[in-house]
Each structure stands twice: as structure tokens, then as C-alpha cells.
Design a protein that fits this description.
InterPro entries: Xdiol_dOase_suB. The protein is of the alpha/beta class. It has nine helices and ten strands. It is 33% helix and 20% strand. It binds 3,4-dihydroxybenzoic acid and fe (iii) ion.
Length: 288
């Protein structure tokens, strides 16, 4: 049976991709931020997952505002990145696992999550940059390939109405059941991306709320239901309009055991416009 080894969280800031591609990770502005990924890389090295399920939001590369699914699952064997501005060079294509994706889709729909299934799906910085931060860069055309299979799970955090924190936590619980009912012996890690507090537009552009970020990180570790008391408007009032992305961490958390163990926690602010948090949580149900 497939097993969930644990979960990781990461922001997905475009400038992080540039810093990696341009070899700036050890410069003073970036060093402490990237140091926060070292324990996550070491953990991945130790647990050796076969597949990463990456929960992220598309920012207009694959879905534009004319058609935005609330939840969309990649069901392909390959996912391409493309020029999305920001000066980011596209990275090498990602290998998926369509068979596993279709199992997840069937199980999620059975559990009343009527997701959109995508047999073609371009992945943007929301998906690419956390993987770059954990595995390094693989530029398109370089001949390099990614060392792990990946499955994109896109959550709409861009075009309102956006799903609630409570709905995201429930999606995670359903995703956990879907993964663990797959008959193949796959080792799975879930990556929850986005957040933490940031607002890129309007009068409050530049808003960062360190206290709210730190409280969210603490609660997501051991009491993720805490976040579900807030409406999206309340989360955005605290964390900024784009800070709503943090609800995607709840999809990761919901898929893990209630007593998942904290392996690593790191917070750095500001990076670009954002408060950036890294968590590594290990599923205690497993031994390896
Ligand atoms: C930034 C953060 C994001 O999540 C994003 O999608 C774009 C930009 C930033 O901090 O600059
Ligand atoms: Fe974003």
C-alpha cells in the first residue's frame, strides 16, 4: 500500500527561483532563508519518497481568470513549466504518475471532492520554486531531470470565491485516505506551498504579520482546526490578500496523522514581500 511519510511547507516566491538560478543563495540577503531548507533536504534524503504531491495555486499560467477550478489534480505523466514573467527561466519537465493520479481522483470524487482532472497542466512558480528550493535547479534544455515524481494539486486562492480553511483541511483528510488506499508500495510526501503573510497590491501592499504567521505555524503543527475558525476575509485581514495562500498548508496537514511529529520549523521575514515558513512533519504511523 502507498504510505504517507510526512509533509513539508514552503512559500513559493518567484524571486527565490531567480536567487537559485543565479547562484545567490549564499549572499547575505538570502543565506538565512535558504539555510532553513537544509534540514528539510536532509529529511528527504533520509526518507526517500517516490512521489511528491504538491499543493499549490496557479497564478495565471495554466488557469486564467475566465476559468478557475476550485481544486484541480494533475493526471498526466509529464508537466511542463513555461515563461511566466518574473525573469524566471523555465525548468525541465516534471515526471508525473498518471495511474496514481487517477486513483486519487476516483477516491476524492467518491469522498465528495469533485475535483477538476487535468491531463495537460502547466505548472508555475507556485509548484516549481518549492521543488527548486528542496532539490536545486534543473533548467529546461540542460539535459538534467528531477529526481522525484510529482503530482500537482491546484487550489484556487486567486479568484473569489476561494475555498475555506475548513474545506482545505477536509480535502487533506480525503487526500490522506485516497493515498493510503492505493495498492502500490509508493512512498509519498505532501508539499503544502504558498503563504505566509503577504499582500502584493492595493493600499496595504507590503503587509507582513509576523505574529499571525508564527501562531499559524504553531497551530498547524498540533491543532490545525484552529485556523478553521477564521473566514477567508478574516485571514486576509490578518495575513494580506495573498496571505490566504496559507490555507493550502492545511491540505498537507489534513493528510497526515493527528499526532504527526515536528522534525523542523523555520521562519524568515521578509523575503521579497513575504513571511516565509518551512515545516517538516513526519507521520508517526510509519517506521522506516
Ligand atoms: C511573492 C509571493 C508569492 O506567493 C507570489 O505568488 C508572488 C510574489 C512575493 O513575495 O514577491
Ligand atoms: Fe503566490
Amino acid at each position: 500500500m502507498a504510505s504517507i511519510l510526512g509533509g513539508i511547507t514552503s512559500s513559493h516566491i518567484p524571486a527565490v527561483g531567480n536567487a537559485i538560478a543565479e547562484g545567490k543563495t549564499q549572499e547575505p540577503y538570502w543565506k538565512r532563508f535558504f539555510d532553513g531548507y537544509e534540514p528539510a533536504k536532509a529529511w528527504l534524503d533520509a526518507v526517500k519518497p517516490d512521489v511528491l504531491i504538491v499543493v499549490y495555486n496557479d497564478h495565471g499560467l495554466n488557469f486564467f481568470l475566465d476559468k478557475v477550478p476550485t481544486f484541480a489534480l494533475g493526471c498526466a505523466d509529464v508537466y511542463e513549466n513555461a515563461d511566466e514573467g518574473w525573469g524566471l527561466k523555465p525548468v525541465a519537465p516534471f515526471t508525473g504518475d498518471a495511474e496514481f493520479s487517477w486513483h486519487l481522483a476516483e477516491s476524492l470524487v467518491e469522498q465528495e471532492f469533485d475535483i477538476c482532472t487535468c491531463q495537460e497542466m502547466k505548472v508555475d512558480h507556485g509548484f516549481v520554486n518549492p521543488i527548486r528550493a528542496l532539490y536545486g535547479n534543473r533548467e529546461e534544455g540542460s539535459g538534467d531531470s528531477w529526481p522525484i515524481k510529482t503530482i500537482p494539486l491546484a487550489v484556487n486562492t486567486v479568484q473569489h470565491p476561494v475555498p475555506s480553511a475548513a474545506r482545505c483541511l477536509k480535502l487533506g483528510q480525503a487526500l490522506g485516505k485516497a493515498i493510503e488506499s492505493y495498492p502500490e508500495d509508493l512512498r509519498v510526501v505532501i508539499l503544502g506551498t504558498g503563504g505566509m503573510s503577504h499582500q502584493l497590491q492595493g493600499e496595504r501592499a507590503g503587509l507582513i504579520n509576523v505574529d499571525f504567521d508564527l501562531e499559524c505555524m504553531e497551530r498547524i503543527i498540533s491543532e490545525p482546526e484552529w485556523m478553521t475558525q477564521f473566514s477567508n476575509a478574516e485571514i486576509m485581514a490578518q495575513a494580506g490578500t495573498e496571505g490566504i495562500e496559507t490555507i493550502m498548508w492545511l491540505v498537507m496537514r489534513g493528510a497526515l496523522a493527528d499526532d504527526a511529529k515536528l522534525i523542523h520549523k523555520h521562519y524568515h521575514v521578509p523575503i521579497s514581500n513575504t513571511g516565509a515558513g518551512v515545516l517538516v512533519l513526519e507521520n508517526e504511523r510509519l517506521s522506516y
